[in-house]
# Entry
Amino acid sequence: RKEVEQDPGPFNVPEGATVAFNCTYSNSASQSFFWYRQDCRKEPKLLMSVYSSGNEDGRFTAQLNRASQYISLLIRDSKLSDSATYLCVVNGWQAGTALIFGKGTTLSVSS
Amino acid sequence: ETGVTQSPTHLIKTRGQQVTLRCSSQSGHNTVSWYQQALGQGPQFIFQYYREEENGRGNFPPRFSGLQFPNYSSELNVNALELDDSALYLCASSPPGTPPQTNEQFFGPGTRLTVL
# Structure
């Protein structure tokens, strides 16, 4: 089983749509969880951290369910500029700070 | 504040050659991690350096080695290059005292390595 698994995508949605990405992780000792965004041929950039209580940043909402080892990202009112690959990320060890990435889900928003 | 920089941006090598990639961490950051991202995949952790010592390693063979210097910059060396080593190599730095709960890593633009 892969350490971090994501919906394979791609997701093709019209502007204004709501889209949800799901992710599961295998290491129950993981302590930190993130969504990164990666534009084509660019480096990953942190979109948001994910907390057990859930957190929201504008149109973006992230949820974490530790019992199910499940992470989600909801994007409301999609914009053309949201087109990118979204990477689900967890930390890899108990003491270190290595990040374990999912394969990524590609989102394409069209007008 | 200067971000993470990497050099070179692109590199073409042939099988069996050796390559050195360089990374300058963001100002004030003392931890550097290296990742390999093959086409269509997420980044994979290679190793991490903290205070000039290797602080953990992913599932990569010994021909992948690294260094961190006193100014926290870092090098990734790959010996005996194979075709499958073709990938984007990303360096990421994080500041001192970063707790696991925040653990934000800042990525450089990467070096795109092609092995022919």
User: Anything to note?
Assistant: DSSP finds no helices and eleven strands in chain A. Chain A touches chain B through 23 residues (CB under 8 Å).
